[in-house]
TrEMBL record:
PANTHER family: STAGE II SPORULATION PROTEIN E, STAGE II SPORULATION PROTEIN E-RELATED. Residues 527-747 form the PPM-type phosphatase domain. It is a multi-pass membrane protein. This is SpoIIE family protein phosphatase. It comes from Streptomyces musisoli. Coiled coil: none annotated. The chain crosses the membrane at residues 173-194. Residues 345-509 form the GAF domain.
């Protein structure tokens, strides 16, 4: 390629040769200029040095006296030679006014005539001359010597050859030539690279070929009856042929201007500036229909930009107009598929249908649905409809408003459409008596308003008719035609499917909500150990499986439980109800939290085995639970959790922390035991139990949610549980992404003044002492009315403990909302209630206890058991 460039046959070769010649001329010119400059500087330097030496010698003290002495040469010759050697000039000649030399470097020339012009010097001026003397080319200066009266009494000439002055500069000439040679080589190399690139870009063409190609290109470009545009990567027009100027009516200075500044319509200008691929896109430009094709120019390494061709298709305008209508209808159907049914809400789906139809299809659109459909039920024909949606180009149309109950008369197009299931078009409403019979006063106002045409389409989903959609026209003078009826039916068919889906979802959601509300606690039981407030927020997607409960236990204790079944819908709600019922049953056994979770884990495992995927049911894996028991007497809280977030504890001073409760596996996994944690809570502490929807969602992880919860609780020092719930939930969205269950429980203490207990020896005689002590305690509590029944209950329970149990035996009375009697021993044998026969000597004591007490039971402790009985306070 480089050889081709050097030959000069191509444009690149000629450019290469021309640039090399130019560079060579520049180098030669620089060398010549440098040499001339050196010579000029040498002459100037010689003149300046000779002048300085001559003036200095002429004005030196004693020069005038020496000239007037009898032998000037004897005095001046030594001085002149000494000065010559010190200053580096070639000669210093002192002469009289006739030009006869007194001094000279060559003594044989003393006394001879000075060679040069001395006339100006005799007149008092300095003379500088360039001559060729006996020692070669030189520069000499003649300076007059004046006495004190200003009379010229002699002359002094100093001179130096230019060879002596310019020698240093001439020594630099080889370096200059070497630098010029290097510059020539570099310039030649750069020129070669440029020529090589030019050769590649011109494909080795010569000037003649390029000229011919350009002429042919220009002729073809402007002769074709198709517009051609080339747009650069920056959106500027680089080239436009004559046909493009004509079709687009471009200004004369269009080239190099941005395509958005050429006065084109927005759609066409946007296409040209985007550079995207286009194939036969039809654009209406002024009064012409143009078919536009566009391709990028950088597909194979070319420059960025695009080339566009334009073809006038005005003769196809009528056909294109119909194609445009068809395209608009297809776009509308596409938008219907995307925009209708975005939510599982019946009313919103009806609104989406009416909003899509206006103004693209009709000027007003209304949707009427059976009331049963709005409630999620199947429609009941013959009943009234309710206007679910209305949209229009104006808001003051005298049509039935949204929410109005409408019973269409049998002669109306709507009633006929509902009966037959077919669409009905009314081109001219004024000539339709059946429609006007619906409400003459309203229909007259509709006609006066300008509404003149109607299409009524039934909303059918399978065999069900859900309602009717009405499309009204007022702005366009043309009535609806048969083609528009087909489009309306297609739109309504798509909307009907979405409305039916929303109806089914509404029904299922209502059932799930009803089920969940029936399963969640509506009120909390009365108890005195905890002051409790709670909240439950359903998720955006509907009913979930979160639940909570408050369960009073024996001995004034209270159990708190929070659980979560993963998922939403009927199955999650039903599973939640089963687990909540199981917790109720297990809690009646008065089990520790870890044992209760163990039983619950086995239950979930059995449910999973019964409801396998093969049976079409979802498994329950993923259920979590936290179970806590608070004792107001000891102020101790025992907790265990199965895959559930830890509780938060707010101390009375406002300090917040998350107690270390061992995290067990979620319910249903089995194989691992659950562990408990025991906390001693100060009176007034707040225990916060919650589900993961409170602290975790799609936008943040659980650690960030726990930090936010902790921060919210710190802002409520001394607040009531109700205020705490409100503060915590204020930071959540109105409809969280997951269910949220929250319980805030503030602890109370059953003080020593409300608790009495005694140790009882294993001796039947001690029963009377217990009765006496209990009677005194009840008298102190002003509960004398309960003394008799309490003595009977305790006599039976203590006697049984002495007879069948193991010591030590304890008796405890608790005065809470009820009077609680407890008898404890070290035996694990539980008494059973039975009916004694008439011949039995015993077995009637426990039956008597059951009759006298409101509730009674047995709970087991790590050291034995406790038999308790409760009596209502008077």
């Amino acid at each position: 390629m480089l050889r081709s460039a050097v030959t000069g046959r191509s444009v690149a070769g000629q450019v290469f040769v021309l640039q090399v010649v130019i560079v060579l001329l520049l180098v030669v010119s620089a060398v010549v200029a440098q040499v001339l400059q050196v010579r000029h500087d040498s002459d100037v330097e010689a003149a300046n040095r000779s002048l300085a030496v001559a003036e200095t010698f002429a004005h030196a003290p004693g020069t005038v006296a020496a000239l007037r002495s009898p032998d000037p040469t004897a005095v001046l010759q030594p001085r002149a030679e000494a000065a010559r050697k010190e200053t580096g000039v070639d000669f210093i000649v002192v002469m009289d006014t006739d030009g006869i030399r007194y001094t000279h470097p060559n003594t044989d020339r003393i006394g001879k005539k000075f060679v040069g012009d001395i006339t100006p010097a005799l007149e008092g001026r300095t003379v500088t001359e360039h001559i060729t003397g006996t020692i070669g080319p030189l520069v000499q200066v003649v300076v007059p010597v004046k006495d004190s009266d200003g009379k010229v009494v002699g002359l002094v000439s100093a001179g130096i050859t230019t060879a002596h002055v310019g020698g240093t500069a001439e020594q630099q000439l080889p370096l200059l030539l070497a630098a010029a040679a290097v510059a020539l080589v570099l310039a030649t190399g750069g020129t070669a690279l440029v020529s090589r690139r030019l050769l590649r870009q011109t494909h080795g063409l010569g000037p003649y070929e390029m000229t011919r190609m350009y002429e042919h290109h220009d002729a073809v470009l402007h002769a074709v009856r198709e517009g051609v545009l080339i747009v650069g990567g920056d959106g500027r027009l680089l080239l436009a042929n004559d046909e493009a100027h004509r079709l687009l009516n471009l200004p004369a200075d269009a080239e190099r201007r941005h395509v958005l500044e050429l006065g084109l319509d927005e759609e066409t200008a946007g296409l040209l500036s985007s550079g995207r691929v286009a194939t036969d896109e039809v654009h209406l430009v002024k009064d012409r229909l143009l078919a536009i094709n566009q391709r990028p120019t950088d597909l194979r390494g070319g420059p960025p930009g695009s080339v566009t061709t334009l073809r006038d298709s005005t003769e196809l305008r009528a056909l294109s107009g119909r194609a445009e209508v068809a395209r608009e209808r297809l776009n509308m159907l596409y938008d219907a598929g995307v925009g209708i049914g975005t939510s599982l809400d019946v009313t919103r789906t009806a609104e989406e249908l009416s909003e899509l139809a206006v103004p693209r299809f009709s000027d007003f659109a209304t949707v009427d649905l059976f009331d049963a459909v709005l409630g999620g039920e199947e429609p009941r024909p013959g009943t009234a409809l309710r206007r679910a949606a209305c949209a229009g180009v104006r808001e003051d149309a005298p049509l039935y408003p949204v929410g109005e109950r409408i019973r269409w008369v049998a002669t109306s197009p709507q009633a006929r459409s509902l009966t037959t299931g077919q669409s009905i078009v009314v081109p001219r409403l004024r000539a339709e008596p059946g429609w006007r019979a619906q409400n003459p006063e309203r229909t007259d106002r509709v006609l006066e308003y300008g509404i003149h045409s109607l299409i009524t389409v039934p909303l059918r989903a399978g065999s069900l008719v859900l309602g009717v959609a009405n499309f009204w026209r007022s702005e366009k003078p043309q009535p609806f035609d048969a083609e528009e009826v087909a489009l309306a039916e297609e739109l309504v068919a798509r909307a009907a499917v979405s409305i039916d889906n929303a109806r089914r979802y509404t029904r299922e959601h209502s059932m799930a909500v009803t089920l969940q509300r029936s399963l969640l606690p509506r009120t909390l039981p009365e108890q005195g150990a905890l002051e409790i407030a709670y909240r439950y927020l359903p998720a955006q997607s509907g009913v979930g499986g979160d639940w909570f409960d408050v369960l009073p236990l024996s001995g004034a204790r209270v159990a708190l439980v929070v659980g979560d079944v993963v998922g939403h819908g009927l199955h999650a709600a039903a599973t939640m109800g089963r687990l909540r019922t199981a917790v109720h049953n297990f809690s009646s056994l008065d089990l520790p939290p870890d044992e209760l979770l163990g039983l619950l884990d086995e239950l979930v495992g059995r449910i999973d085995q019964d409801e396998t995927p093969a049976n079409g049911a979802a498994v329950v894996t993923g259920a979590t639970c936290l179970y806590a028991i608070y004792d107001p007497v000891s102020r101790r809280c025992t907790l265990a959790r199965a895959g559930h977030p830890p509780p938060a504890l707010v101390q009375p001073d406002g300090t917040v922390h998350f107690p270390d409760v061992p995290a067990g596996p979620p319910l249903g996994l089995g194989g691992l035991p659950f562990e408990t944690a025991e906390l001693e809570l100060a009176e007034g502490s707040r225990l916060v139990l919650y589900t993961d929807g409170l602290v975790e969602d799609r936008e943040r992880d659980i650690d960030e949610g726990l930090d936010l919860l902790c921060d919210a609780l710190r802002r409520t020092p001394g607040a009531s549980p109700e205020d705490t719930c409100r503060t915590v939930l204020d930071r959540l969205p109105a409809r969280p992404s997951d269910d949220v269950a929250l319980i805030v429980a503030r602890t109370r203490q059953l003080g020593p003044d409300r608790v009495a207990q005694w140790e009882v020896p294993s001796d039947p005689a001690a029963v009377s002492e217990v009765r006496a002590s209990v009677t005194r305690q009840l008298s102190d509590w002003d509960l004398d009315e309960l003394a008799f029944t309490t003595e009977l209950i305790l006599s039976e329970l203590v006697t049984n403990a002495i007879r069948y149990g193991r010591g030590p035996i304890g008796v405890r009375l608790l005065r809470d909302r009820t009077l609680i009697c407890e008898v404890s021993d070290r035996s694990t044998t539980s008494p059973h209630l039975r009916y004694a026969a008439s011949t039995d000597e015993g077995g009637r004591g426990l039956f008597l206890v059951a009759q006298l007490a409101e509730r009674w039971g047995t709970r087991y402790t790590p050291h034995g058991k406790v038999i308790w009985a409760e009596q209502p306070l008077p």
